[in-house]
Design the sequence.
């Protein structure tokens, strides 16, 4: 650097400010704001170049939040419930970019259920975050499909149905990375985000993100209070980027840590808490979610990971050059071929 | 036997669907085409897979008319279920051939009757029992060939094409055809006047269907992303892409320059296509009515966020699920007004198979130029039937990539640009696409209110300005979309407007109207909306305007009345919507009835 | 101080949304209403939940005009973010009140300026800190009451209504209001001319919003099934059903005669509603633009399978997600042409809150009679704002159940009936519904081609006959839908057509136009499509017709041009689409500009 | 009966013919036809009055089949992928009727995924049959979402994605009755249908139903051959209607039979095969499906049942009279109420 400066930069030469977005217009205290802040921090920490990210969202308070981080990234705030389809198409434009999608529980589990399930099934390479508050924030407090049975909301009555479990849905659709977290647990959100950004394929992050305006009663399962009281982390997670020395490993006692190697060379360190949990076994994950439901636990952490599956875009043997940079000559067959085509017609 | 009728009659073949008769029918069609005789083939098939009556009509016309005709001079009946109806359908003086295992009383003496021992000959072919039904169809090919004089050599060419030169398949089918012909030669005495004879009227043509043409057009239009969901009669657009893209659009290293995605439904299909279009890909989705309806919300996003995308709609008979295997031109008003709020959708109306090819690439160009969804309305008749068509022509202009700024462009602009600003006065703003690494490239797109910088705003003035610019863009489109094709003889006082697959019938009707006493007609085939200056001039020029269309409600008439209210009193509807392709006779009569 | 202005000015209150100012604003509105002064209130709110600028405008009009006005005589500013804009917005000679903790230079000397120690007074109220922002709003209510002369008693009535009589809440709020008023009495010297005074012009009115009215209309229309999906500005239709159905539509035993379902999306919402309608229930769904677009496919099924259902569309500004909290009349062409294929959708256009109630039940009747989807187009202004309105009137006709055959009916007919046969010559056939145990009752419904017995068919003639009958049914609808409201003075030569929430502005504009030199105008408020005979006669009668509407493209003009092509040259558009309710001034100027 | 007759009738006094539909227009050998025939038999055997059934379907070959059984029942052949929503609304019209829905794998798992999941979540009282052939029959042989990874179809190439598992989806959505069967196993289909018709709530039946025209290659997992070779029934099922004596129980050895009591008094007898399987434990069901996937088994039988949950329509405290038979006086509040309403308006 030419002159001394007090502004701190990361290895990409960028300041934290380069990762920010517009000022949030969400409510003060909304869980979504804290997630946006973690995304800013994580991208800064991981030295990600913001131009190499595309942001996607649907419609909802949650879906507004991509405007509040990574101003220097392209993004699209699409239709309610349709983030999946838009992102699926857009990610083909330049497969060297990474995708982050922010959706709500209404956006994903109500109107967007079909699209979500099929995006997951295709292992589309995207970090798919559901900012899950059990309610429709932006339309002022109706039940979403993740609202717990028995929840009582103003003007809406009592919810009669079992909640959709985003993680269970992701697993059933053969997701290759499934995690749950809680906006009140900033550290875990951060480490999971880092891991998700290194994941090869779809990374579904179901983050309980309280709506302080419409669904934050102490006994509501999407409230801060309930979350703090019921959170049961599976592990203590640390993410180690590919290039960092893994000296850190030495710090742990034998057998207390599980290591998961990522496709890009990074490592996830999972420090055991009460019980050991193997996140590479799908049956385990089903079991865990089933028992969490019965025990009223907010199980958080990395539920399942599989780094070995090809992603959606890999399934298409595409040229190296980003498709959207191909030249006319790549896109239109030569004039000579015209006769051949006509001959093929009979 | 009355006077000989050569190369000017129709053959209808009645079979059971799922029996493989398509191969036999298309073989006949192609053989006749190779004899140089103008032909057209119309497949009337049920919406199921196996076991129901299906008909195939081949028209031969030495004058080159390729519209459907109602009259059936030669009828082949292979299906007991439709036998009586088929028998009744033969024109007086016509010929009726039937499989002799069908046991019905034959109560007509005004036609020639030829029983065919189909089962017997088929059995002799010595194929597996699974194939016997299929091979039975080859028998009537042979009998017809013999009775009408179709050249065996052209039949062999047709078979060889169909079976991609696989000798074994060709020989086995040809064997049965030959057996049928031989049997007929020995056993049938010709008592009808119909026959075919070699001409030289097809050498400048190829045979193809509109869906294949659309796909090929898109291949040459640089299509990079197609998302679709199966639906009759549109599926074969995507399926043809699956065939031709790998052949013509892989790099030397065998890498793909494109992706085709079968989506989980049409909402997702258009969503993916719009996502790809936003991302800078030349993108398309193909569907039919029910799928189109599901795309309504996304269509509005495409219009408002200004995303290039092509929506290729192969129309079938609606409303609702309607008649999935019948043709119609019934989606015009829906597409015109698709999505809530104000919008002005751009529509292309291909009128021939060749034009399906042309609009296949042109629509992608227009989408890129106008940063807008482009809707192309084909139909089942055009899309799924085999037509003789002028060969496809290599695009006469380079790919149109539209106003896209890359790193170097932004560098030149010192990074100063506005996503939604009308810098050029044509209503079309500049855009950047993901992957552009210039620090001023990124913008955040949305379907909500935005200002020139793409920032969210609820400000009334920004809203109105933006909507006014979109309107201006639509005016720009007016000068870019395909102009109409006009045929106006001297002294014409009355206009006819038609579009899409109605063209051959109107064309033929005009030939007739020319011959009769009465006013002279000018014909304009509309090829796009918005209306170009030529369209407006045509309409202003004539006293009365007949609008011929394949729907109940006069959908184009409604639209033209709305856009040219001063001319609206001149419009007369000629609407036809029974699910079958239009005939010249119907057009002629519909017009003459109103002219009385 | 200029001449006194009594009961004829506007008050605008600028606050931050999510701060609870709605209660304060509505309290003011109601208090004025209870003083017998004609009022209207317009809430201009952002599409988020908390923290952005929001405005509420109350118009007082001793002459009884309730349209929005642009001019703001009294402005209250509680929001630093919009302070400068608010200050600039005050009419010369007006009054500006503001929370004195906002520190901005005040650069106007042409208006009266009143700082208010809002924080201080609110703090004195001794409420929890969570409630302090909220209670601060009561301060300006008190100050305004004092400065304008609003009766404290009516304020108390308004509070008591709002808090459903809960004494504690009423007292605590009233205490702060009183404190505000007292402070103003002691500290402010009035220097502006605006004041209010009791009248007797509202005693025949109530205050309500159109969505509540729609829900109540449906309650009286015997609604049995509502499926919905949350969306601004339509959610409160269903939410009001959740409030009133349990109160008025349970049996003596407390059992429900209805079901309200929050669906997973709008595709499902209309699907459920159509399922219920097919099952014989009086059924409805309520939505706004984006949801409406998602309903396109199902709408066509409803039309074609002939299922009674009401689709209540509370319009907001599109295209796409657009401006969710701004009003518009932009869904007209989409609804008119909704779904692929031919269809003729029936549309009701309520123009007042009272009419929302009336159409709430009438739409269910029409759906039952016509066995068809009925689309009702309300809008955000009508639906979500509080209006003074004539009291709701008990339906003047019994429930219309339509042509439904039960066991006894079938017995009489010896079981002989046809689901899709036009027995009565009105295009409307008879139907049965599940649960009917007569052995001939059952039929199998579908969206595919069917004959008179509801059997699947691909037959061309059956198809055309059925479609022709549907067209006849639409003609029957013409005589059943609400007639227009016409105001035509003697000597009128020019017509004006408007619809929906434009009515008050047009009405007020007419009063003005009456006074100026020039041609005389007749006014028709359209209330439905198809056009009744009265509509056609009105249009034929006048030289020129102005069509006033809240969209960019002249959507009603387009439709009327298509249905009355002979009259199309007469139409002139007056289109307004900035998201705000229409003003009389705008209407007047738009017409006068074209009359020059 | 007035005169002796040779035509056999059931306890409802109806002949088998009274349960038939129109002649099928599906392909000969199509699995869907055999399922339609089982429905006819089962309804006859259970003495169901056809007027007390409503039939629903979407669009597809499968969805045509309700026309081919129970001519005397009301029915509706709706839109592609939208059976769920239509049925949900229609079942409120007269809750004394029973609902049978026939959908396809495309209809349910592709376009209809969202609707299906939400219908299940609501425990809508319907027998929901997926005639699962892994392919789109009616549109001529494209991949459906239940097609197995690696399946090769003409004009379509090779399927890249993991199949949707209908039973797993139903379980994840808290279905109260989940079973899988195989159109080639007529007896099992029949008994499961009987049980499903007695179930209280949603009964999801995923029946592998081969498409002989487009997806019946021996190695395709939805073919007759593969099904016959890989079927692994969980139990031998017999259904005992409420009114029949349960003497039949005596026939079994102690401990070899599991009994499940239905809400309507019927009983399902589950005879153990190799291993015991408890279908009232959801965790078991997850486990079983997971291992079936890994072992390439076509696990059939009753996977899960819970008779205790309230159904969708029960959640609404409705009047006894079917809603669609209510009189004007039940539907319009009395004139007196009008003033009250107006007074409520301010
Ligand atoms: C098609 C459509 N239907 C309904 C809406 C209205 N709408 C906007 S946001 C939203 C729900 C948002 O809930 P969620 O996804 O949970 O996000 P949150 O606001 O809770 O973060 C709805 C129903 C819409 N914009 N589009
Ligand atoms: C909205 C819509 N999209 C597409 C179609 C075309 N379509 C008809 S049936 C079908 C698939 C049927 O597959 P499946 O549900 O598996 O039934 P099957 O024929 O295999 O029994 C499709 C895509 C349609 N009718 N409607
Ligand atoms: S309403 Fe709820 S979800 Fe929306 S911004 Fe406020 S707290 Fe967040
Ligand atoms: S195509 Fe397949 S699914 Fe359709 S009827 Fe034939 S065998 Fe059955
Ligand atoms: Mg939410
Ligand atoms: Mg299938």
Sequence:
């Amino acid at each position: 650097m030419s002159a001394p400066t007090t502004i701190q930069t990361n290895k990409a030469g960028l300041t934290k400010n380069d990762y920010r977005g517009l000022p949030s217009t969400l409510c003060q205290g909304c869980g979504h704001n804290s997630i946006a802040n973690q995304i800013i921090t994580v991208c800064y920490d991981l030295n990600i170049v913001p131009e190499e990210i595309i942001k996607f969202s649907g419609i909802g308070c949650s879906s507004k939040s991509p405007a509040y981080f990574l101003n220097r990234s392209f993004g699209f705030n699409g239709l309610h419930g349709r983030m999946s389809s838009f992102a699926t198409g857009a990610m083909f434009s330049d497969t060297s970019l990474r995708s982050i999608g922010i959706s709500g529980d209404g956006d994903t589990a109500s109107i967007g259920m079909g699209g979500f399930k099929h995006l997951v099934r295709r292992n589309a390479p995207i970090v798919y975050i559901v900012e899950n508050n059990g309610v429709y924030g932006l339309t002022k407090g109706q039940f979403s499909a993740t609202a717990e049975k028995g929840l009582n909301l103003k003007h809406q009555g009592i919810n009669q149905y079992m909640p959709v479990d985003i993680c269970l849905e992701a697993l059933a659709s053969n997701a290759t990375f499934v995690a749950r977290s809680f906006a009140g647990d900033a550290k875990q959100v951060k480490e999971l985000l880092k891991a998700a950004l290194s994941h090869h394929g779809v990374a579904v992050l179901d983050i309980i993100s309280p709506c302080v305006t419409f669904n934050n009663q102490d006994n509501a399962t999407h409230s801060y209070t309930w979350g703090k009281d019921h959170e049961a982390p599976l592990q203590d997670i640390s993410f180690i980027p590919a290039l960092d020395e893994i000296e850190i490993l030495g710090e742990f006692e034998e057998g207390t840590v599980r290591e998961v190697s990522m496709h890009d060379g990074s490592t996830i360190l999972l420090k055991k808490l009460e019980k050991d949990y193997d996140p590479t076994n799908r049956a385990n994950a089903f079991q865990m979610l089933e028992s969490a439901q019965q025990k009223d636990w907010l199980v958080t952490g990395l539920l399942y990971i599989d780094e070995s599956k090809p992603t959606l875009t890999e399934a298409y043997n595409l040229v190296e050059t980003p498709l959207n940079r191909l030249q006319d000559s790549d896109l239109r067959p030569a004039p000579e071929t015209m006769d051949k085509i006509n001959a093929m017609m009979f | 036997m009355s006077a000989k009728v050569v190369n000017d009659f129709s053959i209808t073949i009645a079979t059971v669907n799922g029996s493989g008769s398509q191969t036999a029918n298309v073989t006949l069609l192609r053989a006749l085409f190779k004899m140089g005789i103008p032909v057209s083939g119309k497949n009337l098939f049920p919406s199921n897979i196996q076991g129901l009556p299906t008909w195939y009509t081949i028209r031969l016309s030495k004058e080159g008319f390729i519209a459907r005709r109602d009259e059936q001079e030669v009828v082949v009946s292979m299906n007991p279920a439709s036998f009586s109806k088929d028998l009744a359908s033969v024109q007086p003086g016509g010929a009726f051939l039937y499989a002799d295992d069908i046991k019905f009383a034959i109560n007509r003496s005004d036609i020639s009757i030829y029983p065919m021992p189909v089962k017997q000959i088929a059995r002799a072919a010595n194929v597996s029992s699974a194939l016997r039904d299929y091979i039975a169809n080859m028998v009537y090919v042979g009998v017809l060939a013999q009775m009408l004089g179709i050249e065996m050599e052209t039949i062999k060419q047709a078979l060889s094409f169909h079976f991609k030169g696989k000798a074994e398949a060709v020989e086995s089918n040809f064997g049965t055809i030959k057996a049928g012909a031989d049997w007929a030669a020995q056993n049938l005495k010709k008592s009808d006047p119909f026959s075919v004879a070699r001409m030289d009227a097809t050498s400048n043509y190829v045979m193809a269907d509109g869906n294949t043409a659309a796909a090929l057009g898109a291949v040459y239009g640089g299509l990079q992303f197609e998302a679709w969901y199966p639906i009759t009669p549109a599926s074969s657009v995507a399926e043809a892409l699956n065939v031709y893209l790998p052949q013509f659009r892989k790099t030397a290293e065998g890498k793909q320059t494109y992706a085709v995605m079968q989506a989980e439904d049409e909402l997702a299909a258009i969503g993916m296509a719009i996502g790809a279009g936003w991302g800078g890909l030349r993108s398309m989705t193909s569907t039919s009515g029910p799928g189109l309806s599901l795309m309504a919300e996304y269509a509005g996003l495409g219009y408002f966020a200004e995303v290039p995308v092509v929506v290729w709609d192969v129309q079938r008979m609606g409303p609702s699920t309607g008649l999935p295997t019948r043709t119609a031109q019934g989606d015009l008003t829906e597409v015109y007004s698709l999505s809530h709020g104000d919008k002005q959708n751009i529509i292309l109306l291909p009128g021939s198979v060749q034009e399906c090819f042309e609009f296949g690439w042109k629509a992608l160009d227009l989408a890129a130029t106008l940063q807008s969804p482009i809707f192309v309305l084909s139909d089942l008749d055009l899309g799924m039937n085999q037509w003789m068509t002028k060969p496809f022509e290599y695009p006469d202009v380079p790919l149109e990539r539209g106003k896209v700024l890359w790193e170097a462009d932004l560098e030149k602009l010192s990074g100063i640009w506005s996503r939604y600003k009308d810098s050029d006065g044509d209503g079309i703003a500049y855009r950047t696409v993901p992957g552009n690494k210039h620090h001023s490239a990124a913008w955040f797109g949305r379907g909500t209110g935005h200002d020139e910088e793409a920032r969210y705003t609820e400000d009334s003035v920004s809203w109105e300005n933006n909507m006014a610019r979109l309107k201006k863009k639509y005016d720009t489109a007016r000068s870019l979309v395909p102009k109409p094709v006009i045929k106006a003889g001297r002294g014409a006082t009355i206009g006819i407007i038609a579009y899409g697959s109605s063209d051959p019938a109107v064309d033929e009707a005009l030939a007739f109207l020319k011959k009769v006493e009465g006013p002279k007609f000018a014909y304009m085939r509309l090829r796009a909306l918005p209306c170009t200056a030529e369209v407006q001039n045509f309409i202003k020029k004539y006293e009365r305007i007949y609008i011929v269309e394949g729907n109940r409600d006069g959908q184009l008439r409604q639209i033209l009345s709305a856009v040219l209210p001063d001319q609206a009193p001149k419009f007369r509807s000629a609407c036809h919507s029974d699910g079958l392709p239009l005939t010249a006779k119907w057009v002629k009569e519909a017009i003459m009835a109103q002219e009385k």
In short: DSSP finds 20 helices and 23 strands in chain B. Chain B has a mean pLDDT of 97. Residues A 60, 104-106, 133, 135-137, 144 surround magnesium ion (ligand 5) (CB under 6 Å). The first helix of chain B runs from residue 21 to 34.
